[in-house]
What we know:
Layout lengths: L4 E8 L1 H14 L3 E7 L4 E8 L1 H18 L1 E8 L6 H5 L12 E4 L2 E4 L3 H6 L2 H10 L7 H4 L4 H11 L5
Helix pairs in contact: 1-2, 5-7
Amino acid sequence: MIKQALGFIETYGYIGALEAADACLKAANVEIVSCNFISGGLVTIIIQGDVSSVKEAIDVGSVAANRVGEVISVNVIARAGIGLEKVLCKHNPNEKVKEKSINYKGKKIEITDFKELKKMKVVELRRIARQIDAIGIERKQIKFAKKDELIRAIMNYFKGVE
């Protein structure tokens, strides 16, 4: 359960979000929980800390983001409800993936096997890429990705697996 306050700043564009995050960290004793890239150029920065620090950081961060971009919305949740972390923490990039393989057409494919991926058709690689959350290619761009780009993204995603 999240026991600290949560603060959200949603901006249009990455630069505004980056400026907001920097200002928040400098303004108060808070830490960044995540930076979420939403479709259409929206970026949400989520911070946490004690209630007064989060409120101060959100105020300072939203002013800073407005200087270089456009703030869409801000919010502070003083005491997050039980289960909210399940919504916020869908994918933790620091968390190790348990398996190096993925099921495709009823058989297990070793994702870290470069030769196996190289043998596959681009259409098959795109289907695999769509099965992986946070692969590094936007879902809309997967259909335009070339074979080498797909293989590189798949390999990079599973690079940290032991």
